[in-house]
Amino acid sequence: MEQRPPNAEAGARVLVVDDDPTVAEIVTGYLDRAGYVVDRAGDGPDALARAAAHWPDLVVLDLMLPGMDGLEVCRRMRGRGPVPVIMLTARGDEDDRILGLEVGADDYVTKPFSPRELVLRVESVLRRARPAPAPASGLLRAAALSVDPAARRAAKNGAELALTIREFDLLSFFLRHPGRAFAREELMREVWGWDFGDLSTVTVHVRRLRGKVEDDPARPRLIQTVWGVGYRFDPAVASGEE
């Protein structure tokens, strides 16, 4: 498998997976003009084969594909290695958008969409995927958690956590701001870099992150819901220091 330098700033490889040749051609054209190296696939098996031959820096993935749908393609790709995914969906049902986020998509765009907006989303996701400069203190630690921003690795009790890009960014942000309550709008702005968007994106990612860092996700103690506000990361409460 060819491995490209992670999160390349120039000439990043984007795999566009859509069975509609018109949509694929338009998206490919806009991404190509924006300076990306673009591969195209018309179905799930073709997408997996192309990814195996040339591992992408990001995947633009249609939810409704013939045979193997986008959700299964996303699962299989994530099983091979971390890769940012932007899901495309023609459906207006919120449940479908949330399902895409649940399997690990980093963002979604609903058809019909502006190709220019999609390019901006690609830029945003790739920018967030780049390793951030490590803070002066190096590792971030709280309760049983540790985060290495430079290596983009997180662990609980010494065991590495399998986090998506957004989950990692969200956990890092919480560790940098313990004890402070944030509205979902603030989290979307600070973690996603968006001034607007579907706030269910934040809700789903918090739920997924809880499933990986909480001892009992059904009774979260680290990432607490602050009713009427949003969420608060409170390692003191989780450590029994209330």
Per DSSP, the total helix count is: 9
Q: Give the mean pLDDT.
A: 83
Which structural class matches the secondary elements? alpha/beta
Strand order of the largest sheet: 2-1-3-4-5
Shape descriptor reads globular
- What fraction strand? 15-25%
Tell me the helix content.
40-55%
Task: List low-pLDDT spans.
Answer: 1-9
Please render the helix and strand layout as text.
Layout: E1 13-17, H1 21-33, E2 37-41, H2 44-53, E3 58-62, H3 70-80, E4 85-89, H4 94-102, E5 107-110, H5 115-129, E6 140-142, E7 145-148, E8 153-156, E9 159-160, H6 165-176, E10 181-183, H7 184-192, H8 200-213, E11 223-226, E12 230-233, H9 235-238
Parallel strand pairs: 1-2, 1-3, 3-4, 4-5
Antiparallel strand pairs: 6-7, 7-8, 8-9, 10-12, 11-12
Helix pairs in contact: 1-5, 2-3, 6-7, 6-8
Structure description:
The chain is α/β, with parallel strands linked by helices. 40% of the residues lie in helices and 20% in strands. The strands form three sheets. A five-stranded parallel β-sheet has the order 2-1-3-4-5, with helices on both faces. Strands 6-7-8-9 form a four-stranded antiparallel β-sheet, with helices on one face. A three-stranded antiparallel β-sheet has the order 10-12-11. Helix 2 (44-53) packs parallel to helix 3 (70-80), helix 6 crosses helix 7 (184-192) and helix 6 crosses helix 8. The termini are far apart. Mean pLDDT is 83; it is low at 1-9.
